[in-house]
Design goal:
flat
Amino acid sequence: MAVSVRHPKDFISGLIFIGLGFGFFLIAQDYKMGTATRMGPAYLPTILATLLMLIGLGLVVRALFRDGDRVTGVAWKQTLLILIGTVMFGILVRNAGLVAALLAYVSITAMASIYFHWRATALLAAGMTIFCVIIFIYALGLPIPMIGPWFGA
């Protein structure tokens, strides 16, 4: 009995999830695991990587039994915009601060949407920035500069 993929999009998505989860799982093995009561730095990444691989496995199995759409192409522009936004966030967060990094991230990645509008993007960027500053800087006390050295802080 031959096994065939009936839903290629789910199948490819599942393989991507499994691959990313496996990569994160391997990276986490360089850290101390700890126990459930005294979690080490590898504990949460290992759990999340395992869950990601299980979700991927579920997608792959589902792709064998459920009909679905074929893969017609890759949205290169959208993929590139999201990648650029993520890299820019990583570059800006330490030197320009969390506020500038989030504003840039939301602005760049929002352009990947077919529903992109500047007004909605500006509101989303402002809201997300306020929320993240409150949560990460004030509530959790993470040592992330709100305004970085590039802006004289």
